[in-house]
Specification:
The structure holds two protein chains of two kinds. Chain A is mostly helical. Chain A has eight helices and no strands. Chain A has a domain of 161 residues: MetI-like (MetI-like fold), CATH 1.10.3720. Chain A is flat. Chain B is of the alpha/beta class. Chain B folds into two domains: 172 residues, Rossmann fold (3-Layer(aba) Sandwich); 75 residues, no CATH class. In chain B, α3 packs parallel to α5 and α5 runs parallel beside α6. Chain B is globular. Classes of the chains: A mainly alpha, B alpha/beta. The interface between A and B is medium-sized, with 25 and 31 residues.
Chain lengths: 234, 256
């Protein structure tokens, strides 16, 4: 049995934080990705430019820089707004951009840009006749999306989505930099105080690997589900 | 004006793709029980004309009335568009289209394809829709294929399935866009047989086709289109057997 020098429970808490940050970021990035894909495919000049600006800026700046910008800059920005609300309207609210919120926002924002590209390609891969048939049968935009475009798009999006998720999962390690007690930060503390870095880092690596393996299994099942009717999953 | 409104009426439709004018003022009146076939060489505009009838293409000018209700248009930056998409959705539900490449939804079984729009667009109960769908599949000879996915069926089966999907809407008018053109020759017969049955029971149909025998036997009216205008129109005996224009004579001449 490995001796964790009493760090076991804290590491478990840290692992939970890692999973929470990852899952919430994933949800945010999928929503942002769908919006970005729609914006980029929109015939509105403004939305198209906005989507392009977002993906270009986000994908061109290092993740770490973005996280620090959002963590420090975000609180300053929020303070400016809440101060203004207080002086103008006597509304007193306090919003704390804590490490958790900043971490989820940053990672969600970063991966939203990547998801946007994944979804855009996947939407364009849906055979146009399928969408046209849906329109011809009286479906409105929302029904066409829900009943035909989305389910057919997912088959094309899932490989990219699962890839993005794996990278996203590992990117959560960055939150330790802004002081959030995720698995990596606690393991790092433990390594320093016990001088047994290998024990803790190997353990952390194994936990990441375990989460990744479980997700891979889950994605394979999703892929199978969304490939129904299309022969073998490709 | 007749006591009962016409199922479909189109007046002076024009359509431009960029600089090219593909429809130059086409009109059509479909009375209940009419089978109108549109014939013409490729590029004559017959498919585009059909697609303007359910607004899969937006006509640049002209009027469209479904069961007496006129579709409202407005001018936008992108050209003329329907003023009220809810109206379009409502009118499309009364016109079912059968496509050249079937376009059954690939991620649904045949039965799911047939009940999809009745349940989600017309708001029918699932149970009722399934009962109706099973009867329709029986009718087009696909009762045993209900749980197959489109990719598991032949082209002819898919097209008959697509006709069942169209019938499930209880449409005022059925629009057929070259329904047999993508089929292997030996599969064409089954599809045409289903369509002949529909004509016999008094369905109102508008059919773009290259099947002259079908046009001759089944239609109440034939429209010969050339370069975006109706060059000849009338009952099949007149248009197909005693064509007036040289062009139509050539078009109908047996190809070698």
């Amino acid at each position: 049995m490995i001796d964790l020098h009493g760090y076991g429970p804290r590491l478990a808490e840290g692992a939970l934080v890692t999973v929470e940050v990852a899952v919430l970021s994933l949800v945010l990035s999928v929503i942002l990705g769908l919006l970005t894909a729609s914006a980029k495919m929109s015939r509105s000049w403004f939305l198209h430019r906005l989507g392009t600006l977002y993906t270009t800026v986000i994908r061109g700046i290092p993740d770490l820089v973005l996280m620090l910008l959002l963590f420090f800059g975000g609180q300053m920005g929020v303070n400016v707004i809440t101060d203004w609300l207080y002086y103008q309207f006597d509304i007193d609210i306090f919003i704390n951009i804590n490490e958790f919120v900043a971490g989820v926002l940053t990672i969600g924002l970063i991966f939203g840009a990547y998801m946007g590209e994944t979804f855009r390609g996947a939407f364009l891969a849906v055979e146009y006749g399928q969408i046209e048939a849906a329109r011809a049968y009286g479906m409105n935009h929302w029904l066409v999306f829900k009943r035909v475009r989305f389910p057919q798009m997912m088959r094309h999006a899932l490989p990219g989505l699962s890839n993005n998720w794996m990278v996203l999962l590992k990117t959560t390690a960055l939150v330790s930099v802004i002081g959030l007690s995720d698995m990596v930060r606690i393991a790092s503390e433990a390594s320093k105080s016990t001088r047994e870095p290998f024990t803790f880092m190997l353990l952390v690596g194994a936990v990441y690997l375990a989460i990744a393996s479980v997700s891979e299994w889950g994605f394979a099942r999703l892929q199978k589900r969304y490939s129904v009717g299309f022969g073998e999953a490709d | 004006m007749a006591a009962t409104p016409l199922p479909l009426e189109v007046r002076n439709i024009t359509k431009r793709f960029g600089e090219t004018e593909v429809l130059k003022g086409l009109s059509l009146q479909a009375h209940k029980g009419d089978v109108i076939t549109l014939i013409g060489a490729s590029g004559s505009g017959k498919s585009t004309f059909l697609r303007c009838m359910n607004l899969l293409e937006q006509p640049n000018e002209g009027e469209l009335l479904v069961h007496g209700e006129e579709i409202q248009f407005k001018q936008t930056r992108h050209g003329r568009e329907p003023a009220d998409w809810n109206q379009v959705v409502r009118m499309r539900a009364k016109l079912s289209m059968v496509f050249q490449s079937f376009n059954l939804w690939a991620h649904m079984t045949l039965l799911e394809n047939v009940i999809e729009a009745p349940v989600h667009v017309l708001g029918k109960s699932k149970k009722e829709a399934i009962e109706h769908a099973r009867a329709l599949l029986e009718r087009v000879g696909l009762a045993d294929r209900a749980d197959y996915y489109p990719a598991q069926m032949s082209g002819g089966q898919q097209q008959r399935g697509a006709i069942a999907r169209a019938l499930a809407m209880d449409p005022e008018v059925m629009l057929f866009d070259e329904p047999t053109s993508a089929l292997d020759p030996e599969l064409v017969g089954d599809v045409l047989k289903v369509m002949r049955d529909l004509a016999d029971e008094g369905r109102t149909m508008i059919v773009v086709t290259h099947e002259m025998a079908f046009a001759r036997d089944v239609s109440t009216q034939v429209l010969y289109l050339h370069q975006g205008i109706v060059e000849e129109a009338g009952p099949p005996a007149e248009v197909l057997d005693t064509p007036r224009s040289e062009r139509l004579k050539q078009f109908l001449a047996p190809k070698h």
